[in-house]
Amino acid sequence: MFSFLKGRVYPIGVDVVRDSLKLAQLGNNVKGIHLIAGGSENRPADVKPGSGDWQRWAIEAIKKLIANDRFHGRNVIAAIPASEVFIDQIKVPGIPKTNDWKPDDAVFSKVKQKLPFEAEDAMIKCIPTEVDIVLILATERKIIDRHLAIFEKAGLAIKSIGVWPAALTNSYTSFFGRRKTDMEAIVMLVEIEASCTNVVICRHKNLLFARSIPIGAEQLNRKKALETLLSSTSHVPTLQYVANSGSSQDGDAVTGLVLELTACRRHFGSMYKRAQIERLIFLSGQTIDRDICGTIAEQLEIPAQMGDCLAAAETEDPYRLGIDRRGCRVNLATAFGLSLS
């Protein structure tokens, strides 16, 4: 068993979102990428996200998860939740395609005009993509400070703050984009979380587009359960999606998500004129019903596949790792991708 752990050990990926927190640590050896340890905790219903109680809960939950000897070290790579990150794309002619490119004042002036918070309080990351398009990610400093305080008080050592779109791309390229034909294929990655759906369009490792949609598994699974219930009754009310409501609790969540994904596709097409999305990959594990994913793919008319990162990773002894892979309803795509950063 110990030979399985030899090789490279990646940092712990920490995915803290509104409704839960998830930890995963991966390694790489002759058998490939494997899961070393993991765990998750759901936020108590009486704890408000972002509150002082929420911070205390997150600290104690992390301490609980790393209290045993499954995890190797305390170095972590974390990401700010998608709901706390402003994302936009802007065109900047003549930008060099290098990771060390620094935007000038003209670029910052374009970004600052769009921010939903004071620009002076923002931390901004710019990622060059293709055809002179820059992906902009911005977060308020106080939110970053809040998360850094959580990790510090939980006894973790922050290696870096990652970004969720890059984490999803890491998971895709490591587990589902390893064929030669995948190198140039443009794919749409869809990660359905409890209260939101995170979307990334990429050409293998190259990020091209990202957006978070406020429709998640809670609404989608509620719709599925309601359909099952109503199928046994004689009087079935018509469900209609309320456009631009930001919530599908009172409407058809699947239709609403399809409309939002279609808008993402159109926006992407307006920026990348000759690019075509070839495949749809659901990076949601078993958190969402496969029939729902099939319906979404059918309405979008894009070939699709399920991408369960937990099932794709090698595991020698799943019972000692903190996650039971059988029937696991936890989505670890972002945590896996952060660990691989």
How would you describe this structure to a colleague?
- The structure is a single chain.
- This protein is of the alpha/beta class and about 350 residues long.
- The protein has one domain (about 1-340): Nucleotidyltransferase, domain 5 (2-Layer Sandwich).
- Helices cover about 30% and strands about 25% of the residues.
- The protein has a five-stranded mixed sheet with strand order 3-2-1-4-8.
- Helix 1 crosses helix 3, helix 4 (about 165-175) crosses helix 9 and helix 6 packs across helix 7.
- It is globular and about 50 Å long.
- The two termini are about 25 Å apart.
Keyword list:
single chain, 341 residues, alpha/beta, Nucleotidyltransferase, domain 5, five-stranded mixed beta sheet, 9 helices, globular, disordered N terminus
Give me the count of strands.
Answer: 13
The CATH class designation is: Alpha Beta
Distance between the termini: 26 Å
Named at the architecture level, the CATH assignment is 2-Layer Sandwich
Please, how many helices? 9
Spatial order of the strands in the main sheet? 3-2-1-4-8
Helix/strand-derived category reads alpha/beta
Taken in chain order, the helices and strands follow as EEEHEEHEEHEHEEEHHEHEHH
Beta content comes to: 25-35%
User: Biggest β-sheet: count, sense, barrel?
Assistant: 5 strands, mixed
Q: What integer value in Å does the Rg equal?
A: 20 Å
Assembly status:
single chain
CATH topology annotation: Nucleotidyltransferase, domain 5
The level of helicity is: 25-40%
Overall average residue pLDDT: 85
Envelope shape: globular
Q: Point out poorly predicted stretches.
A: 1-5, 232-251
State the domain count. 1
